[in-house]
Amino acid sequence: MKPLFFLLLFSLSLIASTLHLSASSNPARLNPLIATDSASSEISNFIFNALVKYDSTGQKVIGDLAQSYKRVSPTVIEFKLRRGVMWSDGKPFSAADVVFTYDLIISPKVTSPYATDFRVVKEVRAIDPYTVRVTYTKPYFKALEIWMMGIVPRHILQNEKDIMGSSFNTHPIGTGPYILKKLEFSKQIELGANPHYFEHRPKIESIIFHVISDSMTRFLMLKNGEIDIDGLEPMQAQRQLDKTFHQRFKQLELPSHSYTYLGFNLRLKKFQDPRVREALSLAIDRQELVDILFLNHGSVSTGPFLPGSKGFNTAIKAPKRDLIRAKALLKSAGYDSKKPLCFEIATSNSNPIRPYAAEILQRQLLGVGVKVSLKVMEWQAFLNTVVMPKKFETVLLGWGLSLTPDPYMIWHSDSDVVGGFNMIGYHSKKTDRLIEEMENSTEPGKIAALQRDIFASIVQDNPYLFLVVPNDIHVYNRQIKGIKPTINGIWEDYIDWEKGAK
User: Fold this and answer.
1) Terminal Cα-to-Cα distance of the chain (whole angstroms)
2) 131 Cβ neighbours under 8 A, 6+ residues apart
3) 424 lies in which domain range?
4) What are 357-383's pLDDT values in tens digits?
5) Which of 331, 446, 477, 497 is disulfide-compatible with 228, CB 3.0–4.6 A?
6) Which residues contact 245 (CB under 8 A, 6 or more apart)?
7) What is the SS3 assignment for 3?
8) Alpha carbon 130 to chain centroid distance?
9) Dmax of the chain from CA atoms?
10) What pTM does this model have?
11) Least confident interval from 11-15, 236-240, 423-427
12) Which three-class secondary structure state does DSSP give residue 192?
């Protein structure tokens, strides 16, 4: 009986050492260079490492795959790499992988939105197997932060002719704390602890992502204890949980690093008229969105940068709803009850709140005679047939906010390219000039001042209707020990988390 008892104990310990998470959609590509959807990005972060990362305060850049770094000159940075780091297939990591990753990002083989980050890089050179020297064409405000994307293995991909369609994207080899063990689309994705991870083997043995597109099913699994960490919708947090749930789960609420927006396709004539965009902005009651959709678990968004960051412009206030002026602007643009402005809002049901947000916007805009139709789609179909090919009139989406925003990626005219994030087609000579001036600076005070000017310039143009900054309502199983919330979220030092009995 004794061997059987210990076998049972071992089996129970493995169950306790599994972290159960959810994903609302299948990952498109588990390759950090082309992982643009949320599921791919989230899972890739467990599998790959970057050269550098933010510390727990979000104020300082520290080493990850790089042991250290130094600025040789205003246009040169040298990275000293960690020794002894291994890829998950046992091959050694070296400077050659960093050079290869850079070459891949800028090559025509890859359509990567991160390519624009490297536009001011002149050369990436391996000085020796553990030293990488990066030379920039000019001083660059984000010279370190661009190296926060994952590094990929040269020995696996160097002879790959089709990176976008490579089997690597579903069978990734990384240096991260976890290794992909199983990928079952629309079912489960399993990660196992990397026994050779350079910091140490994660204390939680495995992570299982349950791919569940239906938000109600995800919520029921959470309530049943089948998921350990998840986010709650405000209605769920306030009205759909009982005492028993809170005995098993802790709740933590933080402002999200994101905003919800309605983006116009500025290639269409109807949205090129600034009077139309201003009218639509004045027709919307943003606070009502916060109150109804988020039950006050959020705030009104006033612009494109993270509230509380140095580039956030506190002088810019959200427009108050003004139906009289909105109607007058529409009238001057040629729209009235006989010739109403009509357009479609396209969004995805991967975020359960967005379809309801679209319905509220539809009702609010009807107040000024604007007729809106709605298109709600599954995420991958939405991404592949609407967003990426830019086949939309307007899109209701969210955008993540960085501690170091790079407005070039979304707001510069040059980013209106295939695979770029300026998908709405925003072009402004003034905004372009401010962005370029900011990027050429390395003085923090000047950078922050220019960011505030960029903020004001974008808001004045109304290329988006900035709507809401939702709060993140996190809940996590009380069996998980070691969670330390920071400005970066709840995932700080997750390799030291433990999961066991209460």
Assistant:
1) 27
2) 78, 79, 80, 81, 95
3) 258-471
4) 999 999 999 999 999 999 999 988 998
5) 477
6) 223
7) helix
8) 30
9) 87
10) 0.74
11) 11-15
12) strand
